[in-house]
Design brief:
This protein is 33% helix and 16% strand. The protein binds fructose -6-phosphate. Fructose -6-phosphate binds next to loops.
């Protein structure tokens, strides 16, 4: 795991954008795994500003609320088109987002996994992290080997996400999410976490034991996992001096 501490959200998002840009330049037909939520907003704005070529890029989103169609203002499909896809030259056929209205959810999930395999797997998976340590919507106690499937959100996640819906009652209970096993098969993983409310989850994921009670802790087993945090989200880490020192020693060509 490589922990990169940046002074603030802007610096962290710019760094993350350079990492994604490098991936797309080195492999123009890259397959990206993408998150939604507050965390990647600035990253997506930066990526739009970089005017990269997305024509050969394929994307798979991590998750979607069950029961919300792509036109629903809080659907992740709508989020992705508004915040990224509509502003870059990606082809609609290369965009994959779990279908919140799928009639047969298990069948849909099997197909989603197959589609990921058919394009050769995910090159770079970008992740946020929940205050309870979830990645995708793999809540604590999720199987660390899980595949794309339906999950029930915890009360904590529904409370956290109520800010997007206005009322907590309106937050769906169920989601379709890539599994932890699916995420772990990505060739590279880039997890972003900003703000003090993520500090405990980040510390548990990076320096705690590997446990299904903090799903993000499985990233300790990933061969190429980068964790980019702002100062506030790094607030509960023990080894910050070491992480800063490692980053400072990097040759420029390795720093994006
Ligand atoms: C969203 C996702 C979630 C979020 C996490 C953090 O697609 O997979 O794991 O990344 O809930 O959400 P924010 O960024 O809103 O704090």
């Amino acid at each position: 795991m490589e922990v990169i501490i940046q002074p603030d959200v802007t610096a962290a998002s710019q760094l993350a954008a350079r990492m994604v840009a490098r991936q797309l330049r080195e492999k123009p037909n890259s397959v990206l795994g993408l998150p939604t939520g507050s965390t990647p907003l600035l990253l997506y704005r930066e990526l739009v500003a970089l005017k990269l070529d997305w024509r050969r890029v394929t994307t798979f989103n991590l998750d979607e609320y069950v029961g919300l169609g792509p036109d629903h203002p809080q659907s992740y499909a709508r989020f992705m088109w508004e915040n990224l896809f509509r502003q870059v030259n990606i082809l609609r056929k290369n965009v994959h987002i779990p279908d919140g209205l799928a009639k047969d959810i298990p069948k849909f999930c099997t197909r989603y996994e197959r589609q990921i395999r058919q394009v050769g797997g995910i090159d770079l998976q970008v992740l946020g992290i929940g205050t309870d340590g979830h990645i995708g919507f793999n809540e604590p106690s999720s199987s660390l080997a899980s595949r794309t499937r339906i999950k029930t959100l915890t009360a904590e996640t529904r409370r956290d996400n109520a800010r997007f819906f206005g009322r907590e009652e309106d937050v769906p209970h169920h989601v379709i999410t890539m599994g932890i096993g699916t995420i772990m098969e990505a060739r590279q993983v880039l997890l972003l976490a900003f703000g003090e409310n993520k500090a405990a989850a980040v510390a548990a994921a990076v320096e705690g034991p590997i446990t299904a009670m903090c799903p993000a802790s499985i990233l300790q087993m990933h061969p190429v996992a980068k964790i980019v945090v702002d100062e506030a989200a790094a607030g509960r880490l023990q080894k910050t001096d070491y992480y800063r020192w490692v980053f400072a020693q990097k040759p420029l060509w390795q720093r994006w």
